[in-house]
Amino acid sequence: MKTAPPETGAFFARDRIWHPPALTPGYKTSVLRSPQKALISLEGTTTELTGPVFGHNMLGPTDNDLIVNYARPGEMAIGQRILVHGRVLDERGRGVPGVLVEFWQANAGGRYRHKKETYLAAIDPNFGGVGRTITDDEGGYWFKTIQPGAYPWPNGVNDWRPAHIHFSVFGHGFAQRLITQMYFEGDPMIARCPIVRTIPDPQAIEQLIAPLDWNATVPMDMRAYKFDIVLRGRRSTLFENRKEGN
Amino acid sequence: MVQTLAYLKETPSQTAGPYVHIGCTPNFSGISGIFETDLGSGPLANEQARGERITIRGFVYDGLGSPLKDALVEIWQADADGLYNSPAETRGRADPNFFGWGRQPGDMQTGEFVFHTVKPGRTPFRPNDPRLMAPHILFWIVARGINIGLQTRMYFSDEEAANAEDPVLARIEHRQRVRTLIGAREGETVRFDIHLQGENETVFFDM
Ligand SMILES: [Fe+3]
């Protein structure tokens, strides 16, 4: 990682209109799980400006290869092979190095490897559905996986999730902590999904749809999708000489 | 237009969903052999770490008072001397035997979450504002039905004087709500329940 001095400036305020609100009745589970009182808003303190660091040495060689990381030796997960790649940037457009990116997904048939999962699609014995990586000096990351399938879920009578990959992103300050989902360009299921529709602004939804990246496709091997992730930006410490209340 | 602002928008949040444990605590969810251990699942400090040992226990309750059994809770805190184990900590280096971050799922049957850690020291409010905050631990809660991670704090019932001068607690206009942020000290155990809704709705922050 670069040896630039750590940044300690305050984070830009989160744009709560861009994010989904807590209460979104179309996504029924939110009804009893959404706080109803206003959030207490203030610029972050030392606690939110800081965060843990995850070293590349914690990663195993197949942590970013879901095609093989749960497969029996010599075997692989069933499905269309894809490469997902992108950069983690901050709101100032700078790459963020050393970010822990964790991802999980259903298998090619839309089935998760989970006790509570009841969808009748088959379990793939060679697919666990989880991986992780840490961004490089420019904020770049990539992983190999199989294209996940769409799946039905009990919300409306006939609700289906579009194909998606879940992402957990751990930046440099706890204020940057984010969980989100990536969708695939051209999927007609996206617009119908009650979870996608918890996001009010169509442009914000666009930000979650990964385009097919033809140039990054590996011929005779894997198609590629590009998914850049933007974390909250930080004020430059040059402008930090202001005392609370002044 | 010559002058344009080139800021990007933060990636919008989406719910962690019902299977967040596959991604964040795969061994707990029964997927073993990919990662050796679940990240953040151990104690936040090893046996050599300075400070008072505490165990935090609690539940996350929904609007009908039922405990969530599919929530994931993360915590972040300073060491016993009030130093964060982070490159952004400018006042010194945290205890090398202290990590400071933990991640725990609720128990599958009961929903209870448990963290083993040390009691944090007091930390300054901001890098440029040395007023001290009372000892506290940041909590971050995600689950199915939660569209964006909920951020709150646990303070300590045995820190009344420090709590009274804490600059964050001072921002809470409805003073009767401050109690939702106070963990109840019972010996080594600190009980801290989180209520997503209702009469006892926990104070959540946008910071
Ligand atoms: Fe999913």
TrEMBL record, chain A:
PANTHER family: DIOXYGENASE, PUTATIVE (AFU_ORTHOLOGUE AFUA_2G02910)-RELATED, INTRADIOL RING-CLEAVAGE DIOXYGENASES DOMAIN-CONTAINING PROTEIN. The gene is pcaH. The keyword Nuclease does not apply. SUPFAM superfamilies: Aromatic compound dioxygenase. One of its GO terms (biological process) is 3,4-dihydroxybenzoate catabolic process. Keywords: Dioxygenase, Oxidoreductase. InterPro entries: Intradiol_dOase_C, Intradiol_dOase_core, Intradiol_RC_Dioxygenase, PCDO_beta_N, Protocat_dOase_b. One of its GO terms (molecular function) is protocatechuate 3,4-dioxygenase activity. It comes from Metarhizobium album. Residues 84-112 form the Intradiol ring-cleavage dioxygenases domain. This is Protocatechuate 3,4-dioxygenase subunit beta. Gene3D superfamilies: Aromatic compound dioxygenase. Belongs to the intradiol ring-cleavage dioxygenase family.
TrEMBL record, chain B:
Pfam families: Dioxygenase_C (PF00775). Transmembrane segments: none annotated. SUPFAM superfamilies: Aromatic compound dioxygenase (SSF49482). InterPro entries: Intradiol_dOase_C, Intradiol_dOase_core, Intradiol_RC_Dioxygenase, Protocat_dOase_a. One of its GO terms (molecular function) is ferric iron binding. This is Protocatechuate 3,4-dioxygenase subunit alpha. The gene is pcaG. PANTHER family: DIOXYGENASE, PUTATIVE (AFU_ORTHOLOGUE AFUA_2G02910)-RELATED, PROTOCATECHUATE 3,4-DIOXYGENASE ALPHA CHAIN. Residues 56-84 form the Intradiol ring-cleavage dioxygenases domain. Keywords: Dioxygenase, Oxidoreductase.
